[in-house]
Specification:
The protein is an alpha+beta fold. It has 8 helices and 3 strands, in the order H-H-H-H-H-H-H-E-E-H-E. It has 2 domains: about 5-90, DNA polymerase, domain 1; about 100-175, Cytidine Deaminase, domain 2. A hairpin with a 5-residue loop joins strand 1 and strand 2.
C-alpha cells in the first residue's frame, strides 16, 4: 500500500508537520528523507529495511557507498544526499558550539572536537585558538598524517597561535582505530 493511501495522521510528513520531528520513529524520519519507495515497498518499508540491514542510524550514516549500492532502490544519489545532510547537520552543530559563551567547560570542548573529528580517515592534529575569555577564535587542522603517524611541529603551532593573537590554546590529536572484527551482513 502506498503511503498516500494511509490515513493522513499516519503519514510521516503530515505527522511531522502536525506533531514535530521528535514524534517520528527513525524509520519515519528516514522515509521522509528517501521520499519514495520502490515497487512493492513504501518509503517507510524501505527505511525499515535499511535500518535493519545496517543495524542503527549511526551505522547507516557511516556506511560506505559500496554498502549502499548493494541495496535495491538506494544508490549513489541517495548516498550523496545523506552525506550532504550529515555534513550540514555537523556544521550547524559546530556553529552552535562556537557561539557558546566559552570553552572553559570540558564537556563543550569534547562535544566540539567529537563533531569536528568524527569520521576522519587518517591521523590529524588540531588546534583550537581561544581569546582571553576562552571564546573560539579559530579551529584549524594543523597537521595531517598517515594511517600510522602524524608529525607535529611546535614552531608552526606557536606561529599560528601568534597569528591568531590567541590567549589560550587547546590541541587535539585524532588517532585512527581499525576494527579487525568483521560482521557478516545478510
Amino acid at each position: 500500500m502506498s503511503i498516500t493511501d494511509w490515513p493522513a495522521d499516519s503519514r510521516p510528513r503530515e505527522k511531522l508537520l502536525q506533531n514535530g520531528a521528535a514524534a517520528l520513529s527513525d524509520a519515519e524520519l528516514l522515509a521522509i528523507f528517501l521520499r519514495v519507495g520502490i515497487t512493492g515497498k513504501s518509503a517507510v518499508d524501505l527505511a525499515r529495511d535499511l535500518l535493519q540491514h545496517f543495524g542503527s542510524l549511526q551505522a547507516l550514516f557511516h556506511a560506505k557507498l559500496s554498502d549502499f549500492e548493494c541495496i535495491n532502490g538506494i544508490g549513489d544519489a541517495k548516498y550523496a544526499q545523506l552525506q550532504s545532510v550529515l555534513e550540514m547537520s555537523r556544521r550547524a552543530l559546530l556553529e552552535q558550539l562556537k557561539e557558546r559563551d566559552s570553552f572553559t567547560n570540558p564537556a563543550a570542548v569534547k562535544d566540539f572536537l567529537q563533531l569536528r573529528l568524527r569520521g576522519l580517515k587518517s591521523e590529524e592534529f588540531h588546534a583550537l585558538f581561544l581569546d582571553s575569555s576562552y571564546k573560539l577564535i579559530a579551529a584549524e587542522t594543523l597537521f595531517k598524517g598517515t594511517l600510522a603517524e602524524t608529525r607535529v611541529y611546535p614552531r608552526e603551532l606557536a606561529r599560528r597561535a601568534i597569528e591568531h593573537n590567541a590567549a589560550a590554546l587547546i590541541v587535539a590529536g585524532y588517532i585512527v582505530k581499525y576494527d579487525v572484527a568483521f560482521r557478516e551482513r545478510h
